[in-house]
Amino acid sequence: LVLNRRPDATERLLDFAMSIKYERRKAPIYCISIIENDQMVDQKLRTAYKTLEQSMVYASSMDERIEIRAVIDYDFIDGLTRSAKENLATDIIAGLPHAKGWLERLMISTTEKISINNHQNIFICRLLVSLQLLDKIEVYLFQFSEKEVGFHDLLERVFQLQSSMNKTVVFHCNSSAATHIDELVQKRVQRGMFFYNVVSSNELLMASEPDVHNLYLLFMSRPGGVSYSALQLSFQKKMALNPIDFNFVLCYPRTGSDVQ
């Protein structure tokens, strides 16, 4: 399920959705707009369908089945949660615009609410360019990330992304997670595309400036999750407020039962 807001950003979100989707899954990708139910709802609905139709044209050119939905609700989060349930979504993909000050705090608050109110895999993306223009995928894991209920499912999305992009993946994680991941990597054909930078949890905050040519994936956890810590929120703010625009995705593993 892809959350549509701006046509240009939605195309990149659709690229990401198609890149992490299992090839054997026949279900369509749902592209939705959440519309606040107020006196301007009719005008907003017309505008939403125009942008949704643009997204549909783009997806059809990529030979991908897509369905569009406009959801009217008094609350944005409630509308998203209801739509995800109705469409049996396994993943929710949304954009994170660059913002500062109170807007930045609002974006982070909205991200937290989306993760708390939905059990699916959640990807909050800031994608500035096409995925195929990026050089490398860098994945950051906090301590105990590998013990999250949906860790394997989320990791499979990374494997699928790597296969779609055909790029090198570097995992920044502690030795326990590296061993766990490598056991799964060894079962794959393209083993040489995966590398590890073994670090402690406290060293995860990027010391150097992010490379604008790479894609950064940060494995997050919902409050109460086994890997949740204040360090994650600190890292999230660091990424959101970084003066350098770069490509990153906040990845929340599912908390429900396996859905393949």
List keywords for this structure.
260 residues, alpha/beta, seven-stranded mixed beta sheet, three-stranded parallel beta sheet, 22% strand, globular
Largest sheet: 7 strands, mixed
Order of helices and strands: EHEHEHEHEEHEHEEHE
Strands across the major sheet, in which order?
4-5-10-9-6-7-8
The Cα radius of gyration reads 18 Å
Total strand segments: 10
Which parts are unreliable, with pLDDT below 50 for 5 consecutive residues or more? none
Explained architecture:
By secondary structure, this protein is of the alpha/beta class. The protein has helices at about 5-20, 40-60, 75-85, 100-115, 150-165, 175-185, 230-240; strands at about 1-5, 30-35, 65-75, 90-95, 120-125, 135-140, 170-175, 195-200, 215-220, 245-250. About 40% of the residues lie in helices and about 20% in strands. It has a seven-stranded mixed β-sheet, sandwiched between helices.
Outline of the structure:
With 260 residues, the chain is of the alpha/beta class. It is 38% helix and 22% strand. The protein has helices spanning 7-20, 41-61, 76-86, 102-117, 151-165, 175-185, 230-241; strands spanning 2-3, 29-36, 66-73, 91-95, 121-126, 136-141, 168-173, 194-198, 214-219, 247-252.
